[in-house]
Amino acid sequence: MSIGTNIKSLREERKLTQEQLAEALGVSFQAVSSWERDEYKPETDKLIRLAEFLDVSVSAIVEEKRKVFKTRDTIYNWEHMKTYVKTTAKNFKLYNTLKAVDYAVKAHEGQKRKRSAVPYIYHPLNLACHALSMDITEDEVVAACMLHDVVEDCGKRPEDLPVNDETKEIVKLLTKPETTEKDRDKDMRAYYDRIAGNPKAALVKCLDRCNNLTTMSWGLSRDRIYRMIRETDEYYPALLSVIKAAPEYNSAAWLLKYQIESMLDIYKRLM
Fold it and tell me: Each residue's pLDDT tens digit in the chain (271 positions)?
Protein backbone atom coordinates (compact mmCIF):
# COMPACT_ATOMS: atom_id res chain seq x y z
CA MET A 1 0.00 0.00 0.00
CA SER A 2 1.32 3.46 -0.93
CA ILE A 3 1.53 6.56 1.28
CA GLY A 4 -1.57 7.93 -0.39
CA THR A 5 -3.49 4.70 0.16
CA ASN A 6 -2.41 4.67 3.81
CA ILE A 7 -3.58 8.25 4.34
CA LYS A 8 -6.95 7.55 2.71
CA SER A 9 -7.43 4.35 4.70
CA LEU A 10 -6.59 6.02 8.01
CA ARG A 11 -8.84 8.99 7.21
CA GLU A 12 -11.78 6.76 6.28
CA GLU A 13 -11.31 4.59 9.38
CA ARG A 14 -11.87 7.75 11.42
CA LYS A 15 -14.87 8.75 9.29
CA LEU A 16 -13.24 12.03 8.23
CA THR A 17 -13.78 13.83 4.94
CA GLN A 18 -10.86 15.26 2.99
CA GLU A 19 -12.11 18.72 3.94
CA GLN A 20 -12.10 17.88 7.67
CA LEU A 21 -8.60 16.46 7.52
CA ALA A 22 -7.38 19.44 5.52
CA GLU A 23 -8.84 21.90 8.02
CA ALA A 24 -7.20 20.08 10.94
CA LEU A 25 -3.82 20.25 9.20
CA GLY A 26 -4.15 23.79 7.87
CA VAL A 27 -3.94 22.79 4.21
CA SER A 28 -6.38 22.76 1.31
CA PHE A 29 -8.55 19.74 0.61
CA GLN A 30 -6.90 19.67 -2.83
CA ALA A 31 -3.60 18.98 -1.06
CA VAL A 32 -5.13 16.04 0.83
CA SER A 33 -6.66 14.77 -2.40
CA SER A 34 -3.30 14.95 -4.19
CA TRP A 35 -1.63 13.02 -1.34
CA GLU A 36 -4.23 10.29 -1.49
CA ARG A 37 -3.83 10.00 -5.27
CA ASP A 38 -0.04 9.77 -4.80
CA GLU A 39 0.49 12.82 -6.97
CA TYR A 40 2.48 14.49 -4.19
CA LYS A 41 3.87 13.39 -0.83
CA PRO A 42 3.32 15.41 2.37
CA GLU A 43 6.26 17.56 3.42
CA THR A 44 8.00 16.46 6.61
CA ASP A 45 6.24 18.94 8.91
CA LYS A 46 2.85 18.04 7.42
CA LEU A 47 3.64 14.33 7.77
CA ILE A 48 4.39 14.75 11.47
CA ARG A 49 1.20 16.75 12.04
CA LEU A 50 -0.73 14.16 10.06
CA ALA A 51 0.60 11.33 12.26
CA GLU A 52 -0.20 13.27 15.43
CA PHE A 53 -3.72 14.10 14.30
CA LEU A 54 -4.50 10.54 13.17
CA ASP A 55 -2.86 9.19 16.36
CA VAL A 56 -0.51 6.82 14.55
CA SER A 57 3.23 6.57 14.02
CA VAL A 58 4.83 8.20 11.00
CA SER A 59 5.85 4.71 9.85
CA ALA A 60 2.18 3.72 9.74
CA ILE A 61 1.74 6.36 7.02
CA VAL A 62 4.94 6.05 5.01
CA GLU A 63 5.64 2.32 5.06
CA GLU A 64 4.35 0.11 2.30
CA LYS A 65 2.07 -2.50 3.83
CA ARG A 66 2.64 -5.75 2.01
CA LYS A 67 0.66 -7.80 4.49
CA VAL A 68 -2.46 -7.11 6.51
CA PHE A 69 -2.51 -8.84 9.89
CA LYS A 70 -5.65 -9.66 11.80
CA THR A 71 -5.60 -8.50 15.41
CA ARG A 72 -7.79 -9.23 18.38
CA ASP A 73 -8.52 -7.35 21.56
CA THR A 74 -8.81 -10.41 23.78
CA ILE A 75 -7.37 -13.91 23.86
CA TYR A 76 -9.62 -15.63 26.39
CA ASN A 77 -13.34 -15.44 27.03
CA TRP A 78 -13.93 -13.60 30.31
CA GLU A 79 -16.66 -15.98 31.43
CA HIS A 80 -14.32 -18.93 30.94
CA MET A 81 -11.68 -17.10 32.98
CA LYS A 82 -14.23 -16.45 35.72
CA THR A 83 -15.08 -20.15 35.86
CA TYR A 84 -11.38 -21.04 36.03
CA VAL A 85 -10.66 -18.58 38.84
CA LYS A 86 -13.68 -19.65 40.88
CA THR A 87 -12.97 -23.35 40.39
CA THR A 88 -9.33 -22.90 41.42
CA ALA A 89 -10.36 -20.76 44.39
CA LYS A 90 -12.69 -23.52 45.58
CA ASN A 91 -9.99 -26.15 45.20
CA PHE A 92 -7.46 -24.11 47.20
CA LYS A 93 -10.05 -22.77 49.66
CA LEU A 94 -9.43 -19.14 48.66
CA TYR A 95 -12.51 -17.73 50.36
CA ASN A 96 -11.66 -14.05 49.85
CA THR A 97 -11.13 -14.70 46.14
CA LEU A 98 -14.48 -16.43 45.78
CA LYS A 99 -16.25 -13.39 47.19
CA ALA A 100 -14.02 -10.98 45.27
CA VAL A 101 -14.85 -12.52 41.87
CA ASP A 102 -18.61 -12.08 42.22
CA TYR A 103 -18.18 -8.61 43.74
CA ALA A 104 -15.89 -7.43 40.92
CA VAL A 105 -18.15 -8.82 38.17
CA LYS A 106 -21.08 -6.86 39.60
CA ALA A 107 -19.06 -3.69 40.33
CA HIS A 108 -17.62 -3.50 36.78
CA GLU A 109 -20.89 -4.44 35.08
CA GLY A 110 -21.42 -2.32 31.96
CA GLN A 111 -17.89 -0.90 31.95
CA LYS A 112 -15.64 -1.33 28.91
CA ARG A 113 -11.89 -1.22 28.40
CA LYS A 114 -10.71 2.08 26.90
CA ARG A 115 -11.56 2.59 23.23
CA SER A 116 -13.04 -0.90 22.85
CA ALA A 117 -16.10 -3.06 23.36
CA VAL A 118 -14.20 -5.41 25.70
CA PRO A 119 -15.97 -5.82 29.08
CA TYR A 120 -13.80 -4.28 31.80
CA ILE A 121 -14.02 -7.41 33.94
CA TYR A 122 -11.68 -9.05 31.43
CA HIS A 123 -8.83 -7.03 32.98
CA PRO A 124 -9.01 -8.10 36.66
CA LEU A 125 -9.78 -11.68 35.62
CA ASN A 126 -6.67 -11.62 33.43
CA LEU A 127 -4.58 -10.56 36.43
CA ALA A 128 -6.02 -13.35 38.58
CA CYS A 129 -5.41 -15.95 35.87
CA HIS A 130 -1.87 -14.62 35.37
CA ALA A 131 -1.14 -15.03 39.10
CA LEU A 132 -2.61 -18.54 39.23
CA SER A 133 -0.67 -19.58 36.12
CA MET A 134 2.53 -18.73 38.03
CA ASP A 135 1.37 -20.97 40.91
CA ILE A 136 0.58 -18.00 43.13
CA THR A 137 -2.36 -19.22 45.17
CA GLU A 138 -2.28 -16.75 48.06
CA ASP A 139 -5.85 -15.75 48.75
CA GLU A 140 -5.10 -12.07 49.41
CA VAL A 141 -3.06 -11.68 46.22
CA VAL A 142 -5.63 -13.26 43.89
CA ALA A 143 -8.51 -11.45 45.60
CA ALA A 144 -6.66 -8.13 45.26
CA CYS A 145 -6.15 -8.86 41.55
CA MET A 146 -9.91 -9.02 41.21
CA LEU A 147 -10.62 -5.92 43.30
CA HIS A 148 -7.69 -3.62 42.48
CA ASP A 149 -9.79 -1.17 40.43
CA VAL A 150 -13.18 -1.22 42.17
CA VAL A 151 -12.41 1.70 44.51
CA GLU A 152 -10.78 3.83 41.82
CA ASP A 153 -13.23 3.08 38.98
CA CYS A 154 -16.50 1.96 40.60
CA GLY A 155 -16.89 4.33 43.54
CA LYS A 156 -16.59 1.59 46.15
CA ARG A 157 -15.08 2.10 49.59
CA PRO A 158 -12.23 -0.14 50.77
CA GLU A 159 -13.93 -0.74 54.10
CA ASP A 160 -17.01 -2.14 52.34
CA LEU A 161 -15.18 -4.78 50.30
CA PRO A 162 -16.23 -8.37 51.21
CA VAL A 163 -12.68 -9.50 52.02
CA ASN A 164 -10.26 -9.59 54.95
CA ASP A 165 -8.29 -6.60 56.20
CA GLU A 166 -5.05 -7.61 54.46
CA THR A 167 -6.76 -7.67 51.06
CA LYS A 168 -8.44 -4.34 51.78
CA GLU A 169 -5.04 -2.83 52.58
CA ILE A 170 -3.58 -4.07 49.29
CA VAL A 171 -6.50 -2.53 47.37
CA LYS A 172 -6.03 0.77 49.25
CA LEU A 173 -2.37 0.85 48.27
CA LEU A 174 -3.20 0.13 44.62
CA THR A 175 -5.85 2.85 44.37
CA LYS A 176 -4.33 5.87 42.61
CA PRO A 177 -4.81 9.25 44.31
CA GLU A 178 -6.55 12.06 42.55
CA THR A 179 -3.95 14.53 41.32
CA THR A 180 -3.34 17.47 39.03
CA GLU A 181 -0.86 17.72 36.18
CA LYS A 182 1.23 20.05 38.33
CA ASP A 183 1.45 17.60 41.24
CA ARG A 184 1.40 14.39 39.21
CA ASP A 185 5.11 13.52 39.48
CA LYS A 186 5.19 14.10 43.25
CA ASP A 187 1.95 12.18 43.85
CA MET A 188 2.96 9.26 41.61
CA ARG A 189 6.32 8.97 43.38
CA ALA A 190 4.56 8.79 46.75
CA TYR A 191 2.03 6.30 45.34
CA TYR A 192 4.67 3.90 44.06
CA ASP A 193 6.75 4.29 47.22
CA ARG A 194 3.77 3.14 49.29
CA ILE A 195 3.24 0.13 47.02
CA ALA A 196 6.93 -0.78 47.28
CA GLY A 197 6.45 -1.17 51.03
CA ASN A 198 4.16 -4.16 50.49
CA PRO A 199 5.45 -7.09 48.36
CA LYS A 200 1.94 -8.38 47.67
CA ALA A 201 0.78 -4.98 46.45
CA ALA A 202 3.95 -4.70 44.32
CA LEU A 203 3.19 -8.11 42.81
CA VAL A 204 -0.39 -7.18 41.89
CA LYS A 205 0.75 -3.83 40.49
CA CYS A 206 3.28 -5.54 38.19
CA LEU A 207 0.63 -8.00 37.04
CA ASP A 208 -1.59 -5.00 36.35
CA ARG A 209 1.12 -3.28 34.32
CA CYS A 210 1.76 -6.44 32.28
CA ASN A 211 -1.87 -6.56 31.20
CA ASN A 212 -2.06 -2.82 30.55
CA LEU A 213 1.05 -2.97 28.36
CA THR A 214 -0.50 -5.72 26.24
CA THR A 215 -3.61 -3.63 25.57
CA MET A 216 -2.27 -0.08 25.33
CA SER A 217 -1.62 -0.31 21.57
CA TRP A 218 -5.37 -0.05 20.98
CA GLY A 219 -6.55 1.34 24.30
CA LEU A 220 -4.41 4.48 24.62
CA SER A 221 -3.52 7.51 22.53
CA ARG A 222 0.11 7.93 21.46
CA ASP A 223 0.65 10.58 24.16
CA ARG A 224 -0.64 8.20 26.81
CA ILE A 225 1.52 5.39 25.44
CA TYR A 226 4.61 7.59 25.77
CA ARG A 227 3.61 8.44 29.35
CA MET A 228 3.03 4.75 30.13
CA ILE A 229 6.48 3.86 28.80
CA ARG A 230 8.19 6.61 30.82
CA GLU A 231 6.27 5.70 33.97
CA THR A 232 7.12 2.02 33.63
CA ASP A 233 10.80 2.78 33.09
CA GLU A 234 10.86 5.03 36.15
CA TYR A 235 8.86 3.13 38.76
CA TYR A 236 8.69 -0.56 37.97
CA PRO A 237 12.34 -1.63 38.44
CA ALA A 238 11.92 -0.84 42.16
CA LEU A 239 8.70 -2.86 42.38
CA LEU A 240 10.33 -5.80 40.61
CA SER A 241 13.22 -5.66 43.10
CA VAL A 242 10.74 -5.80 45.99
CA ILE A 243 9.09 -8.86 44.47
CA LYS A 244 12.41 -10.56 43.81
CA ALA A 245 13.46 -10.02 47.43
CA ALA A 246 10.48 -12.11 48.61
CA PRO A 247 11.60 -15.78 48.28
CA GLU A 248 8.07 -17.01 47.54
CA TYR A 249 7.85 -14.67 44.53
CA ASN A 250 11.34 -15.18 43.09
CA SER A 251 10.18 -17.12 40.01
CA ALA A 252 7.31 -14.70 39.42
CA ALA A 253 9.75 -11.77 39.61
CA TRP A 254 11.88 -13.22 36.82
CA LEU A 255 8.89 -13.81 34.55
CA LEU A 256 7.30 -10.41 35.24
CA LYS A 257 10.59 -8.61 34.60
CA TYR A 258 10.95 -10.45 31.30
CA GLN A 259 7.37 -9.70 30.24
CA ILE A 260 7.42 -6.03 31.19
CA GLU A 261 10.85 -5.23 29.75
CA SER A 262 10.24 -7.21 26.55
CA MET A 263 6.98 -5.39 25.85
CA LEU A 264 8.58 -2.04 26.64
CA ASP A 265 11.41 -2.72 24.21
CA ILE A 266 8.95 -3.70 21.45
CA TYR A 267 6.94 -0.49 21.95
CA LYS A 268 10.05 1.68 21.99
CA ARG A 269 11.24 0.21 18.70
CA LEU A 270 7.85 0.58 17.03
CA MET A 271 7.16 4.09 18.34
Answer: 689 999 998 899 889 999 999 999 999 989 999 999 999 999 999 999 998 898 888 888 887 665 566 777 788 999 999 999 999 999 999 999 999 999 999 999 999 998 788 999 999 999 999 999 999 999 999 999 999 999 999 999 999 999 999 999 999 999 999 999 999 999 999 999 999 999 999 999 999 999 999 988 877 888 889 999 999 999 999 999 999 999 999 999 999 999 999 999 998 888 7
Domain with 11 in it: 3-62
Q: Domain end: 14, 36, 62, which one?
A: 62
Alpha carbon distance 126, 8 (integer Å): 36
Q: What is the CATH number of the domain that holds 28?
A: 1.10.260.40
Which of 37, 62, 87 terminates a domain? The answer is: 62
Residues 139, 80, 124, CA angle at the centre, nearest 5°? 45
What predicted TM-score, i.e. pTM, was given to this entire model? 0.80
Contacts of 72 (CB under 8 A, 6+ apart): none
In degrees to the nearest 10, what's the CA dihedral of 203, 133, 248, 213? -30
